[in-house]
Amino acid sequence: MPSFKKYFLLDPSVIFLNHGSFGATPRAVFNAYQRWQRELERQPVQFLGRQITGLLAESRAALGAYLGTQADNIVYTQNVTVALNIVAHSLRLGPGDEVLATEHEYGALDRTWRFLSKEKGFRYINQPVETPLLSAEKFVEDFWRGVTPRTRVIFMSHITSPTAVIFPVEEAVRRARQSGIITIIDGAHAPGQIKLRLDSLGADFYGGNLHKWLCAPKGAGFLYARPEVQSLLKPLVVSWGYEPEVPGVSAFIDQHEWWGTRDMAAFLSVPAAIEFQEQYNWDEVRESCHRLAAYAHHRICELTGLAPLHFPTDALRSNAGQAWFCQMVAAPLPANSDISLLKERLYKDYKIEIPLIEWKGRKWIRVSVQGYNTKRDIDALLRSLHMLLK
Description:
By secondary structure, the protein is α/β, with parallel strands linked by helices. The protein folds into 2 domains: about 240 residues, Aspartate Aminotransferase, domain 2 (3-Layer(aba) Sandwich); about 110 residues, Aspartate Aminotransferase, domain 1 (Alpha-Beta Complex). Helices cover about 40% and strands about 15% of the residues. Helix 5 links the parallel strand 3 and strand 4. Helix 2 runs antiparallel to helix 3. The longest helix has 24 residues. The chain is globular and about 65 Å long. It starts with 14 loop residues before the first strand and ends with a helix. About 0% of the residues have low confidence.
């Protein structure tokens, strides 16, 4: 696979293996972003007062087609944290209710649920799942042991942040629907990394980031809500959309997308990000990135002698039909590793940008592989780890 690094704005002196944290935007998409910003400044009243509603509708239509849903089922938000705060703050939960999550959830959303559990009196539970992960069925059974008659909500990452695992959310959503349990999926790492069809997935609420693997500008995310549950949501910020003066737009969009004066350029640039990946056949790029991530995973575990969190695949789908990771993978590090020092040395001495994480009392290195990465980047990481871990 050729390197796409020339199409990005990244510092060429840095080996960037941390796309999963904030993403990186291609030059062409960033140019589109700046064009929208200049259009706003050229005539702010025309842009925000007369044009923005139609422009956002066009952008949402492109995003809806990409995500497998209708435009009226999604609203733009700055990121997943904002999107899922809208949902979490809206639901009527109280003493005696339970929200069940996995133990792999992103820290910001764990904090959101813990904060609200103290405010409202419900229980927030992080259910352990056995590792290494063996099958989708085994994962769902482990998770479902935490379900009780008091479980009102299931909250789960589609791709986890600390461990980079693709969870089989489809089966969990199906079982929850049968039990009358609300499902909320954190899709921070999913759009652009795995194919999404939100309507067929069937989750009640789904929040996604577009600035990560879709490579849109920072500040582009979305909230999806099934039409049947949109009325459950309350605006996180009450503005003009709460009592709209122009009829015809859905209450879901009016109440949750218009927050007053703000820069909408990141939202309007999403179609350019979709077009960029279509232009360069990103399905093939993703498969190449997956193989490179699998190589990194295998070699790091070989270097440390430690067992992987899950069984890696050498193709996007294994014979069993389940891929546990795509372009991002976490590998264990020795227990005595000083990960703060190791991260500092990797960047200072070798110009490698990569996250090192402590999760469940163990040390991990999370490798992200995007189209601008090559085997040379992974080999440089392996050489550096070999030197530093000695």
